[in-house]
Amino acid sequence: MAGASIEATLELWASSLRDVKARLRPLFTQERVAASAGQLLDALLGEERRKTGWMRAEAAGDPGPWRQQAILGRGRWDANALRDIVRDYALETLADDDAVLVIDETGFLKQGKASCGVARQYTGSAGKITNCQIGGFACYVSRHGHAFIDRALYLPKVWTDDPARLKAAHVPAETCFATKPALAGAMIERALAALTPFGWVAADSVYGVGSLETTLRQAGKGYVLGVSSDHRVTSWGKARSIAGTAGAVAQGLSPSDWVRLSAGEGTKGARLHDWAYLELADLDIADYDASRSGLSERLPLSALSLCESRLR
Hints:
By secondary structure, this protein is an alpha+beta fold. Helix content is 37%, strand content 25%. Strands 1, 2, 3, 4, 5 and 6 form a six-stranded mixed sheet that branches. Strands 7-8 form a two-stranded antiparallel ribbon. A two-stranded antiparallel sheet has the order 9-10.
């Protein structure tokens, strides 16, 4: 928008917001409910730092928060359909075959016990075990920009083992316990089913276990998945023999094996990480996808694990 007038810029934003509201309209059976949803969106985009129910209502000109609370609590509309609308809207601008799907979770601090999924659990948001909800997210990152395109609420076993608590929170009866890697796998499967273009998946050591590697190999996607320092790595068919835990292998490398790279500027300057590149194995792609051929080196997993091990 370089060179555009303020009036033209504001009109473009307003037009885009009207377009978004029009896309949301089919989610609601009544016009007044759709209007309330639009006002909720306006309030969330407002300048108020805290988005409490009363503050959102005041911004919308309502006498109280009841109408917007009804949208979020008592209203019947398909949240998964909204998820798909958001994904498709983001891809219209961001789609790229070389995009990266970044999987991560974050915590939402809570005071009470009634919020769905709330429990005492670790969250990086606070850096400790505390009372919170945990949400897993898939962020679509390309050269055009980035946006969240999927989400999943993590339900600890103290919730899934308590049918009465699930019912009180209106959790679907068929919901069972799922690990964070399983939730991530479901988000990746949804992205694949929707033909979302991406070339890579990146995630930290929470997700470097289980079946995510197999899922991504079968889909022909590259991946960088972190693992913990006690994860065992082994090479075969390579000039350099490797065996042991990622931490031990990292400690045994010489200074010349490492390269220091920046992950970009942070609040305290460049975010520097040391990386070592070690080949673990060649994998036959046909073992995972009969329609494809060639070799895929099992590299990103080892590179990230050694990076993390050395920085601890």
